[in-house]
Amino acid sequence: MRPPVFRVRANGADASIGRVVWAPAKSLWHIALAVSAIIFIPIATSTGAVVAFLTLTYATLLLGHSVGMHRKLIHQTFDCPKWLERTLVYLGVLVGMAGPFGIIRVHDVRDWAQREPNCHDFFSHRRSLWLDAFWQLNCRFEFERHPSLSIEPSIQNDPFYRFLDRTWMLQQVPLGAVLFLMGGWSWVVWGVCVRVTVSVAGHWVVTYLTHNPGSSPWRVLDAGVQASNLTGYGLLTMGECWHNNHHAFAESARIGLNPNEFDPGWLVICSLRSAGLISRAGEPREESAREDLA
Question: How far is the C-alpha of 283 from the C-alpha of 1, rounded, in Å?
Answer without folding.
Answer: 8
